[in-house]
């Protein structure tokens, strides 16, 4: 048995809620570390894996440079570094890069970057040959050059970003966590809604899992210098509508979508998203909207204002990430988690 040792054959009892069994008695090779981006999620992950969080000092020197020191032996270990590259994006990205270098120089056998939220993912192309950077590719090159062997991420904004890497990338889905919560709420007369044409595939998958109808919001600008008009494809009158997206940034799209749905007769409008970026005036937009509730996961930690907002509720994605980490370390299939 390569990565896990036990007094019995190594296997987990695996439920639909991604709860890990305690049948693994000792982990021999795997070690999990975290930067400063989301230590709470890292603690939840190691709690599911029944191992301690690795000891590392991650801070800054007086001039603002990143300071990293690994405080325990990682020679020959299978290291997992948990660090979403959320705001402050550049600081968190630099922490990830410098920590990876420290592990490589400390003779770790394999380094897997667990990036629950992959920053710069929306900068993945040059629209109309504009003179802009493809920053997602730049970040992929940085992570590869510094010595990271594998990347594990959640709900990449664009699946093709995996092709920017010359190392394996596992993109797992947050939808099982969202679907489980939707089922627990026991909504009546439910309908899933895609907030735009680009999110139809994601919303359709959720609707299929729940066995409910799908509606689509089609945003169009009828004339130049005129505001966008939202057309609703599907009958939402009297329905409980759930907008499904991969992330919520300024919340403008979701709030405008909620308004359009209510104007077309929707009884209730909720929004479910994996990544709570919540930048700019997002909290103000949500509080002033007709949106009944926004449900997000903890791939990104909530700010104090977001935590105090009664319309925002957070779900724990730790168990599903922990299961993916276990499977990678144990050389098991990731795709089997979602069949």
Set out the fold topology.
Layout lengths: L3 E2 L20 E2 L2 E5 L4 H11 L6 E5 L5 E5 L7 E5 L6 H17 L4 E6 L19 H11 L4 E5 L14 E4 L2 H11 L4 E5 L5 H11 L2 E8 L8 E5 L6 E9 L3 H12 L4 E9 L5 H6 L5 E5 L6 H4 L4 E4 L2 H12 L10
Parallel strand pairs: 3-6, 6-7, 7-8, 8-9, 10-11, 10-13, 13-14, 14-15, 15-16
Antiparallel strand pairs: 1-2, 4-5, 11-12
Helix pairs in contact: 1-9
Folded structure, characterized:
ATP binds at residues 63-65, 122-123. GO terms for molecular function: ATP binding; kinase activity; magnesium ion binding; ribose phosphate diphosphokinase activity. Involved in the biosynthesis of the central metabolite phospho-alpha-D-ribosyl-1-pyrophosphate (PRPP) via the transfer of pyrophosphoryl group from ATP to 1-hydroxyl of ribose-5-phosphate (Rib-5-P). Its cofactor is Mg(2+). Mg(2+) binds at residues 157, 196. By secondary structure, the protein is α/β, with parallel strands linked by helices. It folds into two domains: 4-173 and 318-338, Rossmann fold, CATH 3.40.50.2020; 175-315, Rossmann fold, CATH 3.40.50. 28% of the residues lie in helices and 25% in strands. The chain is built from nine helices and 16 strands. The chain has helices at 39-49, 89-105, 135-145, 175-185, 200-210, 252-263, 282-287, 304-307, 318-329; strands spanning 4-5, 26-27, 30-34, 56-60, 66-70, 78-82, 110-115, 150-154, 169-172, 190-194, 213-220, 229-233, 240-248, 268-276, 293-297, 312-315. A seven-stranded mixed beta sheet has the order 12-11-10-13-14-15-16, with helices on both faces. A five-stranded parallel beta sheet has the order 3-6-7-8-9, with helices on both faces. Strands 1-2 form a two-stranded antiparallel sheet. Helix 7 links the parallel strand 14 and strand 15 (293-297). The longest helix is centred in the first third of the chain and has 17 residues, at 89-105. It is globular and about 60 Å long. Mean pLDDT is 91; it is low at 1-16 and 23-27.
């Amino acid at each position: 048995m390569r990565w896990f040792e036990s007094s019995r054959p190594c296997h987990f009892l695996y439920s639909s809620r991604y709860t890990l069994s305690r049948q693994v008695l000792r982990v021999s090779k795997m070690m999990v570390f975290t930067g400063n981006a989301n230590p709470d999620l890292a603690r939840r992950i190691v709690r599911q894996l029944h191992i301690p969080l690795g000891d590392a000092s991650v801070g800054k020197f007086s001039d603002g440079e990143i300071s990293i020191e690994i405080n325990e032996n990682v020679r020959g270990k299978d290291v997992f570094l948990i660090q979403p590259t959320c705001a402050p994006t550049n600081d968190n990205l630099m922490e990830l890069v410098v920590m990876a270098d420290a592990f490589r120089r400390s003779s770790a056998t394999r380094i897997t970057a667990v990036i629950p939220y992959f920053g710069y993912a929306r900068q993945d192309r040059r629209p109309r040959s504009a003179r802009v950077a493809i920053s997602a590719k730049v970040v992929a090159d940085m992570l590869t050059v510094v010595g990271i062997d594998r990347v594990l991420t959640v709900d990449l904004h664009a699946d093709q970003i995996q092709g920017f890497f010359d190392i394996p990338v596992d993109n797992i889905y947050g939808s099982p966590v969202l679907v489980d919560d939707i089922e627990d709420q026991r909504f009546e007369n439910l309908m899933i809604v895609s907030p735009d044409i680009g999110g139809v595939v994601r919303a359709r998958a959720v609707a299929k899992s729940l066995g409910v109808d799908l509606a689509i919001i089609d945003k169009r600008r009828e004339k130049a210098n005129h505001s966008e008009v939202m057309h609703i494809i599907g009958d939402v009158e009297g329905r409980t509508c759930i907008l499904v997206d991969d992330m919520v940034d300024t919340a403008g799209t979701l709030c405008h979508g909620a308004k359009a749905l209510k104007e077309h007769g929707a009884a209730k409008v909720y929004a479910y998203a994996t990544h709570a970026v919540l930048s700019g005036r997002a909290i103000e937009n949500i509080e002033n909207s007709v949106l009944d509730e926004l449900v997000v996961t903890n791939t990104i930690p909530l700010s104090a204002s977001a935590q105090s907002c009664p319309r925002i509720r957070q779900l724990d994605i730790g168990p599903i990430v922990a299961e993916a980490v276990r499977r990678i370390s144990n050389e098991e299939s990731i795709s089997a988690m979602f069949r």
